[in-house]
């Protein structure tokens, strides 16, 4: 594809000339790949002086969706578009389908035109007749549902019969026919179906109705895996690699390669989750797991857990064990657990083959020299050494005859490329370090750039899925597989998961852990999966959060922490039983209740507890000494205050109303020591305020004392990673320890990992630091829900 040299027009000016609106044009400029494609398409179509908007929109679709395996036929298609023989999106999609199957082979124009509806004119009368027929067939349902009829279904029926009909005319005629049949909308037509949920929430599923403006399904209910192609479609051009000598490499599998691959996999989807065992996994890895394991599960395929263990200095068995355990906790089951080191012999043998083919050489530049030469786009002095010499030196590297740092094996790619990931990347380096998995068998180790694509091929991975920062490495990925003549997986990049008020870099996480800013990799303030688990977050909540975000290529966006907390609350609201704990106890003595009198009251574990279900309740003692939160008492009352105050009544949850009759102050005449009160045993008093509380279980015996750790955001800023002095942004109140909280007796035997809702306070989990003498609780999340209120 040739773009005219010397053109003074900017891409933006070209895009506006073909009718793109300014916003679309600006967004296109931000994407280098689409900009290049669309510029080439405009020149190829001969419309550099402009065209109407209909043609321009179709050209944009060609630039973004044209099948790469049929580039030879693109000029033909553009001719049909410019001449308006192909003028609708439906015709263009049909053309893409036809050309994708044709690939680079020749085809007959009459067959192409028939497949795309070229020359087919659908009259308004034809459309009107078809609309009438569709309405007649669905009349009973339309009259029943009225304006809640799913117009999309009617539209689909018409399009199935008349695929080349003008969609605008189809929609106009359907709307007109609805009005003719049903008349004006009534008040009942305008009622939203969602209002019915309040009447019978248990039967909402049975009352699904169609709507011409249907409520979009919840993000968690969408299937994010529909975007991926089937394994048998992996014959298309994966990517185009543009070399500095103006040649273009279009990488794709041959029919023989693909057939061999499909025979080995039996046509199933094969993915891999390939963490490097040099740290603990964080919530970003949860998304990676969801994408790779989730796709395999959705398609009834297989997903490897593959340790990318090419760096023997960074890997530890602690990390390997953690990864395997956390993958299982997240609900995923690997098809097989492998290591890149399992393939060290294959990788070495293929490196030898790469040298033999003239695509690799042994280099003696230092790291600084390599950096300098790359910056200047200069070839290494050893780049063109004889193949036999590189083979001999590489063998000496393998046998430990060359010092560490004195030689590397580099791929002979393109040092003058516009893509810095084609600057003769290192394939092997010397390291006299024993490997945790393979021992001391090797003293040369492959790089990630060399190993991961080859192991993908060896394991017959169908979909190699990774985050967008690897997109620029796609050229190197396919260049290497093409150079070796081996099977090429389908590569797709998606956006990283970045959450506000935290850091996700392993380097920064490691610094926080090793420098004791946090209490280990499982500190509940970290977004490590171990930390989230210790905080009380469930794997199902994390997976729901990740699924809700979807699998997109929108990079650079931060996901608000509120959104994760929403999913946590949704899960815990259903699974965490209710109980009562007082964090800042304030003593209340009930004067009109006899000292030593203990009443065992029933409290609900669940808001909707049925009276005949004894397991839904727990016993809570009520005595003449109870404790409430210090914040639930004020010396001065106000209209908007529902707590306790002198002369005011409140209801103790599950117990009785009490009225403050006296306040006992310390010598400073400010500090409140205790409250004196009277209770209403008849419960005739109906105060507005309801408080949680804990009572002495027997005379003179303090309630169960527990430690409660209140965790908050680790950083004050939404994006601390972008700050130069990111450590100064640490939140000094990210962990507050309440050592003298009081709890109801029923919590005494709570086990580590058990989750509860402390009424009016939030969700909490029993921490592993708990002992028989003292329970420790971690706050998982508060009860407030900003994300839910603002809408999912």
UniProtKB/TrEMBL annotation:
<dbReference type="InterPro" id="IPR014729">
    <property type="entry name" value="Rossmann-like_a/b/a_fold"/>
</dbReference>
<dbReference type="Pfam" id="PF00749">
    <property type="entry name" value="tRNA-synt_1c"/>
</dbReference>
<keyword id="KW-0436">Ligase</keyword>
<dbReference type="InterPro" id="IPR020058">
    <property type="entry name" value="Glu/Gln-tRNA-synth_Ib_cat-dom"/>
</dbReference>
<dbReference type="InterPro" id="IPR007638">
    <property type="entry name" value="Gln-tRNA-synth_Ib_RNA-bd_2"/>
</dbReference>
<comment type="similarity">
    <text>Belongs to the class-I aminoacyl-tRNA synthetase family.</text>
</comment>
<dbReference type="InterPro" id="IPR042558">
    <property type="entry name" value="Gln-tRNA-synth_Ib_RNA-bd_N_1"/>
</dbReference>
<dbReference type="Pfam" id="PF20974">
    <property type="entry name" value="tRNA-synt_1c_C2"/>
</dbReference>
<dbReference type="Pfam" id="PF04557">
    <property type="entry name" value="tRNA_synt_1c_R2"/>
</dbReference>
<dbReference type="InterPro" id="IPR020059">
    <property type="entry name" value="Glu/Gln-tRNA-synth_Ib_codon-bd"/>
</dbReference>
<dbReference type="InterPro" id="IPR000924">
    <property type="entry name" value="Glu/Gln-tRNA-synth"/>
</dbReference>
<protein>
    <recommendedName>
        <fullName>glutamine--tRNA ligase</fullName>
        <ecNumber>6.1.1.18</ecNumber>
    </recommendedName>
</protein>
<dbReference type="Pfam" id="PF03950">
    <property type="entry name" value="tRNA-synt_1c_C"/>
</dbReference>
<dbReference type="InterPro" id="IPR050132">
    <property type="entry name" value="Gln/Glu-tRNA_Ligase"/>
</dbReference>
<feature type="compositionally biased region" description="Basic and acidic residues">
    <location>
        <begin position="189"/>
        <end position="211"/>
    </location>
</feature>
<dbReference type="InterPro" id="IPR042559">
    <property type="entry name" value="Gln-tRNA-synth_Ib_RNA-bd_N_2"/>
</dbReference>
<dbReference type="InterPro" id="IPR001412">
    <property type="entry name" value="aa-tRNA-synth_I_CS"/>
</dbReference>
<keyword id="KW-0648">Protein biosynthesis</keyword>
<dbReference type="InterPro" id="IPR007639">
    <property type="entry name" value="Gln-tRNA-synth_Ib_RNA-bd_N"/>
</dbReference>
<feature type="domain" description="Glutaminyl-tRNA synthetase class Ib non-specific RNA-binding">
    <location>
        <begin position="170"/>
        <end position="245"/>
    </location>
</feature>
<dbReference type="InterPro" id="IPR049437">
    <property type="entry name" value="tRNA-synt_1c_C2"/>
</dbReference>
<keyword id="KW-0547">Nucleotide-binding</keyword>
<dbReference type="InterPro" id="IPR020056">
    <property type="entry name" value="Rbsml_bL25/Gln-tRNA_synth_N"/>
</dbReference>
<feature type="region of interest" description="Disordered">
    <location>
        <begin position="189"/>
        <end position="222"/>
    </location>
</feature>
<keyword id="KW-0030">Aminoacyl-tRNA synthetase</keyword>
<feature type="domain" description="Glutamyl/glutaminyl-tRNA synthetase class Ib catalytic">
    <location>
        <begin position="268"/>
        <end position="573"/>
    </location>
</feature>
<dbReference type="InterPro" id="IPR011035">
    <property type="entry name" value="Ribosomal_bL25/Gln-tRNA_synth"/>
</dbReference>
<keyword id="KW-0067">ATP-binding</keyword>
<dbReference type="Pfam" id="PF04558">
    <property type="entry name" value="tRNA_synt_1c_R1"/>
</dbReference>
<feature type="domain" description="tRNA synthetases class I (E and Q) anti-codon binding">
    <location>
        <begin position="690"/>
        <end position="767"/>
    </location>
</feature>
<feature type="domain" description="Glutamyl/glutaminyl-tRNA synthetase class Ib anti-codon binding">
    <location>
        <begin position="576"/>
        <end position="680"/>
    </location>
</feature>
<feature type="domain" description="Glutaminyl-tRNA synthetase class Ib non-specific RNA-binding">
    <location>
        <begin position="12"/>
        <end position="167"/>
    </location>
</feature>
<dbReference type="InterPro" id="IPR004514">
    <property type="entry name" value="Gln-tRNA-synth"/>
</dbReference>
């Amino acid at each position: 594809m040739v773009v005219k040299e010397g053109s003074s027009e900017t891409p933006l000016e070209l895009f506006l000339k073909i009718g793109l609106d300014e916003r679309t044009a600006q967004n296109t400029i931000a994407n280098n790949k689409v900009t290049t494609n669309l510029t080439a398409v405009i020149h190829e179509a001969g419309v550099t002086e402009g065209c109407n908007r209909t043609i321009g929109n179709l050209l944009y679709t060609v630039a973004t969706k044209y099948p790469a395996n049929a580039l030879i036929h693109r000029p033909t298609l553009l001719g049909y578009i410019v001449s308006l023989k192909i003028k609708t999106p439906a015709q263009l999609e049909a053309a893409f389908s036809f050309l994708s199957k044709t690939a680079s082979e020749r085809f007959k124009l009459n067959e192409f035109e028939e497949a795309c509806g070229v020359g087919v004119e659908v009259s308004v009368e034809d459309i009107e007749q078809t609309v009438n027929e569709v309405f007649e067939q669905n009349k009973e349902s339309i009259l029943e549902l009225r304006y809640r009829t799913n117009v999309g279904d009617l539209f689909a029926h018409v399009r199935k019969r008349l695929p080349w009909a003008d969609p605008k005319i189809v929609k106009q005629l359907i709307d007109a026919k609805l009005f003719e049949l049903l008349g004006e909308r009534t008040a009942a037509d305008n009622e939203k179906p969602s209002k019915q949920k309040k009447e019978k929430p248990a039967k909402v599923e049975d009352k699904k109705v169609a709507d011409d403006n249907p409520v979009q399904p919840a993000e968690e209910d969408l299937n994010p895996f529909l975007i991926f192609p089937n394994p048998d479609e992996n014959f298309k051009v994966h990517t185009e690699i543009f070399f500095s000598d103006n040649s273009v490499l279009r990488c794709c599998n041959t029919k023989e390669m693909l057939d061999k691959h499909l025979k080995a996999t039996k046509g199933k989807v094969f993915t891999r989750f390939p963490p490097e065992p040099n740290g603990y996994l964080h919530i970003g890895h949860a998304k990676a797991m969801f994408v790779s394991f989730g796709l395999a599960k959705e398609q009834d395929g297989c997903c490897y857990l593959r340790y990318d263990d090419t760096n023997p200095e960074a890997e530890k068995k602690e990390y390997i064990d953690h990864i395997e355990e956390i993958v299982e906790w997240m609900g995923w089951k690997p098809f097989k657990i492998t290591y890149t080191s399992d393939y060290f012999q294959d990788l070495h043998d293929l490196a030898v083959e790469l040298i033999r083919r003239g695509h690799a050489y042994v280099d003696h530049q230092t790291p600084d020299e390599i950096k300098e030469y790359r910056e200047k786009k200069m070839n290494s002095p050893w780049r063109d050494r004889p193949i036999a010499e590189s083979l001999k030196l590489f063998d000496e590297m393998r046998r430990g005859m060359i010092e560490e740092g004195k030689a590397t094996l580099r791929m002979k790619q393109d040092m003058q490329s516009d893509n810095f990931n084609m600057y003769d990347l290192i394939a092997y380096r010397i390291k006299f370090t024993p490997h945790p998995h393979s021992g001391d068998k090797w003293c040369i180790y492959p790089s990630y750039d060399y190993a991961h694509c080859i192991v993908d091929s060896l394991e017959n991975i169908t979909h190699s899925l990774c985050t967008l920062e690897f997109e620029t490495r796609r050229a190197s990925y396919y260049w290497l597989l093409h150079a070796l003549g081996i099977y090429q997986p389908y590569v797709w990049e998606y956006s990283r998961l970045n959450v506000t008020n935290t850091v996700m870099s392993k380097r920064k996480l490691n610094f926080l852990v090793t420098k004791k800013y946090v209490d280990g990799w499982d500190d509940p303030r970290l977004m490590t999966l171990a930390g989230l688990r210790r905080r009380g977050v469930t794997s199902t909540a994390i997976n729901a959060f990740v699924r809700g975000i979807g699998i997109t290529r929108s990079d650079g966006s931060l996901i608000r922490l509120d959104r994760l907390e929403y999913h946590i609350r949704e899960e815990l609201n259903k699974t965490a039983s209710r109980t009562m704990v007082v964090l800042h106890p304030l003593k209340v003595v009930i004067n009109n209740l006899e000292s030593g009198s203990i009443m065992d009251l029933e409290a609900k574990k669940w808001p909707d507890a049925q009276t005949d279900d004894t397991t839904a309740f727990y016993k809570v003692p009520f005595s003449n000494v109870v404790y409430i939160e210090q914040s639930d008492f004020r010396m001065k009352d106000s209209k908007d205050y529902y707590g306790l105050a002198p002369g005011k009544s409140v209801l103790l949850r599950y117990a009785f109303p009490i009225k403050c009759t006296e306040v006992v102050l310390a010598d400073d005449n400010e500090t409140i020591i205790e409250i004196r009160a009277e209770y209403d045993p008849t419960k005739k008093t109906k105060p507005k305020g309801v408080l949680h509380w804990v009572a002495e279980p027997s005379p003179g015996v303090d309630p169960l004392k527990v430690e409660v750790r209140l965790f908050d955001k680790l950083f004050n800023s939404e994006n601390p990673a972008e700050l130069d002095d990111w450590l100064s942004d640490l939140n000094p109140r990210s962990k507050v320890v309440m050592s003298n909280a009081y709890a109801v007796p029923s919590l005494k035997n709570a086990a580590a990992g058990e989750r509860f809702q402390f009424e009016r306070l939030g969700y909490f989990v029993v921490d592993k630091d708990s002992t028989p003498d003292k329970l420790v609780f971690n706050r998982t999340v508060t009860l407030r829900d900003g994300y839910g209120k603002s809408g999912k």
